[in-house]
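Here is a typical sample entry:
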Amino acid sequence: MTGELFPRERREIAPGAVLVPDWLDLEQQRELVEACRAWARPPAGLRRVRLPGGAEMSVRQVCLGRHWAVVPRCPVCGVARKTSPGCPRHSYPYAYLRTVADGDGAPVKPFPALLDTLARRAVTEAYGPRLDGIPGAVGYAPDVALVNHYGEGARMGLHQDLEEVLDAPVVSLSLGDSCVFRLGNPVTRTGPFTDVELRGGDLLVFGGPARRAYHGVPRTLPGSGDPALGLTGRLNITVRSTGLPG
């Protein structure tokens, strides 16, 4: 955003969580919006995730590289939901799949080179000379992206990203409307919390001590995005390195 009296500066909002404002210029944002529109088309397109309790997430999502979904049993050891609230050893009831098993059953779209390039550059930009001290930052090799669309009133509850084998950083790119991003700690949902505003073009990378922290989006700010994007709502692209085989 331009014309501000006090331009926003990059900062570490928590140990390992680095915010770089306005990292993407307008042309890069436009390119990503158009790419997201293509990725959202069927097959294996945009859908709503139904959570283990039966409710649907208010955001709509498309996955690239691997498909993130709720599964009826742990894909590693076979523990079923009806016999256990969750697998004690693995990330169940969520898992990465090769097909959109909770949708049209199509193979997931491949992880795109565009996001691979951006995510590798983002990790270097965020940590610079500190790369050696962040697990998975050196030789960062992303293979999965989750693209979430927030319409008016959509939110994301507090959660941890636990489905990845590696503790490599998560790269988050924001497009369109601003949001309130809430970052907690790796132990409990009850805080303390740090709330920051993420705007279109912002980069957030969280790794190291912040990698498994609870985080969420309690609200968006409808109509706050740059109208030049032609985008209604907010798009968030999170890129991850899973460490899963093949």
Remarks:
- The radius of gyration is 17 Å.
- The domain at 11-66+111-240 is CATH 2.60.120.590 (Jelly Rolls).
